[in-house]
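User: My notes are a mess, but here's the protein and zinc ion's SMILES. Can you give me a structure?
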Amino acid sequence: MSLNTLAVSKNTKEYRCRKPQYSPYYQCIEDNYEVFERSYDAKYQEKFGYLRPIVSKVIYQYLDCGILHNGFARVKCNDCKNEYLLAFSCKRRHFCPSCHAKRVAAFGEFACSNVLKNVPHRHFVFSIPKIIRIYFLFDRTLLKELSRIAWEVLSLYYKNAVNKKGTAPAAISSIQTFGDMLGFNPHLHILCADGGFKDNGTFYAAGKDLNAESLEPLFRHKLLSMLVKRGLITERVIELISSWYHSGFNVYCSDRIYPRSAQSMENLARYIIRASFSQERLSYLSESSRVIYKSKDGSDTEDFDSLDFIACLSSHIPNKNEQMVRYLGFYSNVCRGKRKKQGSAESEYVIEDDSYNKGCSKSWARLIKKIYEVDPLVCPKCGGKMRIIALLEDYNIIKKILDWLGIDEFRRDRPPPKRLAVADSFDDYAQNDYVDCNYSDF
Ligand SMILES: [Zn+2]
Ligand SMILES: [Zn+2]
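Assistant: No problem, the inputs look usable. Here's the predicted complex:
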C-alpha cells in the first residue's frame, strides 16, 4: 500500500468518513451527555423512570460511531491500488441518525421484496390518550401489549370483512414512541393487507368501505381492560375517560393502497420505522446550551434545554432485543418460513417492479449507496472494484496511521474518547458494518 495514496484520497469525493462530530446534533450530545448522566437521578428520574443502562451504552457508542480513531477498515482498489479508510459504525437504533437511516433503507427493501404481497393494503395508526402514556414509559413491556391488542382488533375486523373460511389477515406492525416534538407518545403503525389470504396464497379483498371509527371502541375497551388487569388503573379512570367527548383513543385508516405502486409501499414501510427525530429540524446553541427543534411542517418550534432534549431522546431508545417491528398473520415469520419450505404460492406474488429483487443481499455497501448515493466499494478513481483488506483495532497502530496522515478528528484538545469498553466486545463494532441487519429486532 502507499499511505501517500491514502493521503491523496482524503481529498477526493468518494465515501470515506461522515465526520459526524461536526454535526450540531453530535456536538450537543458530546457537550452535554456526561452532565446529563450525572444529573439524571435528581432531574429526570421522576419524569422518565430510572436511567436504563442501554441508554448510556447506545449514546456512547453513537459518540464513537464513524470516528476513525476507534478503528477502521482499509479499503483498496483491485485495479489501481487506490486506498481509503472506513470507520466502524455503531448500528444502533434511533439515537444514531446514520445507522438508523441504513436500517430504514434495509427494512424498506426487505419488507417489499420478502414480506408484503402484491395486493391492496391499508395503513393504520392506533393511538392512545395522554393520561395513560406514562405507564408505557415506565414499563416498556406494555408496548408489546399495545401491539397485541391492536392486532387482535384488526384481525377480528378482517376475518369478518372477508368472511371466507380459512383465510388469515396479514400485516407488519411497528411501534413508535415519539410525537412530532419528541414527547413520549406510544402508538402503532400497521401496514395491513386489505383482506385475507388462504394457505395456498389466494387473496380475498375486503369490501372497499371501512369505517376506522368502528374499530376504536373495541381497541379502547381491550386496552383499558389490560391496564386494569395489571393493576395500573381503576374502573374509576375508565369511567372518567369514557365520559370525555374525545376519549383520546384513535384509529386512523388510510385509503386503500393499490398493488404495483411498489415505490409508495417502500416509502410507507420506511415511514413506519423512521427515526424518532430529524437532524435537519434541529439547531444547537452551544453558548446557551439550548436546542431549537422545528415541527415537521415548520410552523412551530420548541426551545429545549440541552439536557431536557437528551432526556426526551433517551426515552425513545428501545431496550436490547426489544422487538419494535412484528410480522403478523400470513406475513408472520412462521408462515413465511412454511411457505418457503414448501416453495408454494410465492411466485404468484413476486413484486413486478424488480428493482428490489435485483441482487437481494442487503449488503452494507449497497445500503450506503442507497443513502449517500456513492458506492463505497467502487473505486472513485478508476471505477474498479474495491475490497476490504484489513480491519484495524489496535489503538497504537491506528494512532500512528492517523497522525501520519494528519487526520485529527477531535473538535477540541482532548484525548480520544476510549469508550470501546462500553460495547460488549470489539466484535460488536467490527461486525457492525459487515453483517446483515436482523430485521425482526427493529
Ligand atoms: Zn481504482
Ligand atoms: Zn452509528
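The pocket of zinc ion (ligand 1) is lined by residues 77, 79-80, 82, 379, 381-382, 384 (CB under 6 Å).
User: Great, I'll file this with my notes.
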